[in-house]
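Weekly sync notes, structure subgroup
Attendees: PM, AL, DS (notes)

Item 1: joint prediction request from the bench team. They want all two components modeled as one assembly rather than separately. Inputs as received:
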Amino acid sequence: MEQWISLLGSTIRVSTPLVLASLAGLFSERSGVVDIGLEGKMLTSAFASAAAAYVTGNPWLGLMAGMFAAILLSMMHALVSVTYNGNQLISGMAVNTIASGITPVLGLAWFQQGGNSPQLDDVARFQDITLPFADSISRVPVVGPIYSGILSGHCILVYLTFLVVLPVVTWVVYRSRFGLRLRAVGENPHAADTAGISVARVRYLALLCNGMLCGMAGTFLSVYQTGSFIKEMTAGKGFLALAALIFGKWRPAYAMLGCLLFAFADSVQIRLEGVPLPIIGEIPSQFIQVIPYVLTVLLLAGFVGRAVAPKAIGIPFVKSR
Amino acid sequence: MTDLAIELIGICKSFGAVAANRDIDMKVAKGSIHGIIGENGAGKSTLMSILYGYYQADTGTIRVNGKDAHIRNSQEAIRLGIGMVHQHFMLVDTFTVLENIILGAEGGLVLKRGIQEARAHLKELNREYGLEVDPDAIVGKLGVGLQQRVEILKALYRGADVLILDEPTAVLTPQEADHLFRILRTLKEQGKTVILITHKLREVLEATDNVSVMRGGQMVGNVRTCDVDRAALADLMVGRKVNLQVDKAQREPGEVVLSVKDLNLTDRRGVRLLKDINLHVRAGEIVGIAGVAGNGQSELLEVLAGMVQPTSGEIVYKGQNLGTLKYRQPKAAVLRRLGIAHVPEDRSREGLVKAFSNYENAILGYQCDRSVCKGPFYSRKALVARMNTLIKQFDIRPDNPMLRVGLLSGGNQQKVVLAREIYANPDLLLVGQPTRGVDIGAIEFIHKRLIELRDAGKAVLLVSVELEEIMSLSDRILVMAGGQITGEMAGQEATAPALGLLMGGGDKH
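Output from the run, pasted for the record:
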C-alpha cells in the first residue's frame, strides 16, 4: 500500500514536465507547425532558469528566465518555419542541436563545473507544499493516504500545471476565438486565410504559448526536481512528451493521460531497480531503464495507428490561387 | 437600365511577361445572374481574384455599387459585400457547419455567444434561401453538394450581396447542379447578384441572364444570354468555328476483348471501393463509365491497369485470365506488352514526369522496347525520332522534342500521354478523364482520335466525369455510384437526366 502511494505520488511529479511540454507541443502542432524541438527548449530553459535562480536566489526569477529562453528558441523556430517557409523538422532539429551545444558551453564558462550549474540553495528552489490538513487526515482510511500521500507534497508548479494550465489550455483550444482559429489554421490554412485570418500571426502566437509552456517544463526539472542544471538532463523527455501528444491525438486531456502513463512507467522503473523479483530474480538495470521507451514504441505502433494529425501539419503555408 | 453592382473598367494584370488580363471591361447588373465563360487559362479566375482582393490589378478601375473601390485583400471585398465560393472549398473538415461559418467573424474572444447568434441567424438564412443545412453537422461528413451550400451560407452570413461562384458544378451530379441553380435563382429573387464562372456552355445558357466571354486574357464578348445560342458561344470562346458534335458512324462491335467478373476491391480500412463489378468491352466499341468523381471509377481503372491488386474477381483479356498469369515484372508493364494501354486520370501524377523532357516522357511505360536501344543503352537519336513522330501525328505544340513536358499546356501534355499510349498500337485502351483541364480545341482533337481508334477495331474503356463527353463518345454507357455499377444504357439512348438518376442511386441498393 505504502509503495503504491509513493509510486503514484512520484508519477504525478514525474509527469508534470511531460504534461507541460506536450501542451506546448499541442499549441504548435495544432497550428500546423511540427515541433521536435521541445527537447531542446526544455533543456535550454532548464539551464537558463537554474542559472538565474542561482544568481538571484529566487526561483520565480528562474522561471521567468527559463520561459524567456524557451520563447527565444520558439521564435527562432517560427522565423524559420513560418516566415521563411523552411523545413520544420530541420528547424526543430536545429533547436535541439543548439540547446545541447550552448548549455554546457555557457555552463562551463560561467560556473566551471563541467557544464553543470552549482547546486541551488533551498531558497532558490521551488519547495514542496504540504496541503492544508494533510497531516491531520492522513490516518483516515482511503481518502487520507490519497490526499496526503499522492496529492499533497508537490511544488507549486505541479498544482499550477494540473489545476490552472491544463484547464485553461483546454478552454482556450476548444472554447475561445484563438482556439478556433488555431485549429482552423492547422487543418486548412487556406480556409482560415480566405476568412480573413492571418495564418502567420496565429502560428506565431501558438509558438509563443509553446515557448512559455516549454519554459515552465524546463524550469521544473532544474529549479525543482534536481536542484541544479545537469548536462543533457532532459534525456528524451521532450520526445516522450511529443509521443504522448500523438498518443493523445492532439487533445489536451488525452495527452495528459499519455504523460501520466509514461510517468508511471518511469516511476516503476526507478523502483524496480535493484529489487529482486519473484522467480526472475534481479533484473539488470539496463532492461528496466528501457521500459518507458519500449512502452512508447508499443503504444505508438499499436494503439494509435489511426491517430489523425492536424491536416496541414508540417506544410508551410503559401498563399496560392 | 438597371443599376450596376460591379463595374470593371480597363483591368490589366500581368504575371512576369504573361498578360493574364488585358484591358478588361465588364458590367454586372444588380440582381442578375452573370456568367463568365472561357477556356482554362482564359483569365477568368485571375479576374475574379482581382475582384475578391487576392491580386491587385496593374491598371484599371473597379466600381462597386457605382463607387470606386480599392480592394487590397479579401476582408475588404467582404466588407464591400462581395463573397466568393471557391472551386476547392475553403472549409475546415473537422469543424461543424456553425464553426466554419463563424470562423474569422466570431464576434468576441469567447465563442459561446458568437455561436448562439450565428445559430439564430443561420436559421433565418436557411429558411429564406431554402438551403437546408444542419448547423451542427461535421463538414467533412457532408456531401459535396451540401459543402457547397455551406460555402454559400458562409458568404451570406458575412453579408454578401454579390456572390462569385468559381466552377461550382465541377463536383456535382446533374441533379445537384440543378438544385444549385434553383438556389441561385432564389438568391436573385431576393435581390442578390450572382457571378458564375464556368467553362460549360450548358450552364451558362440555362442559368444566366448575361454572359461575358473571355479568351486569351481578353474580354471578347458581353451579351445577353437570350440573344446567343450554344454554337455562337463556343465560337466566341475558341475564336474559330468549333465542331461540338462528334461525328461517329454506327459500327458493329466485334468479339469481347475484356471481361470482368465479380470484381471486388476492399481497402486496408475495410472500405469496399468496388462491389461486384461485371462488365465487358468488345473490339470496336467505346464503353463509357459515368459517375460523380469518387464513386469507384478511378479504382476500377487502376485495377484494370494493373496498378492495384483486386481483392477478388476475375479479369479476362482476350481469353487469358490476368489473375492467374505469372508476373516476373511489374504488372502494369506486363499488361502493356499484352496490349493494354492506360491513359491515367491524373496526367501530372501518374502519366508524366514533369521535369523530364518530351522525348523521355514518350518512352515511359515502354522503356523495355528494344527498338530504341543500342546495345545496353538507349539510343538518344531513336528516342528523339520517336517523339518527333508523335509530335507530327498528334499535333503537339510547341514541336520541340527536347522541351520539358511541364512547360506544355494542359492540352498538349495530355496529347503526349495519349500519343505515347496509342503509338504502341494497343488492343485495349483504358483512358481516364482524357480532357480534364484541356482546352476546347484539343478536346475536339482528342475525341476524334478516340473515335478513330474505335473505328480501327480497338476496344476503348473511357472513364470520365464529364457527362457530355461520355454521351458523345460512348457506344455503351455504364454508370457507377458507391462502388458499383448502377445501370447500363446504349450511347444513343442516354440522356443527362436518366444518367443523373443512376449516378445518384448508389446507396439505394
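Discussion: The longest strand of chain B covers residues 4-15.
Action: AL to compare against the crosslinking data before next sync.
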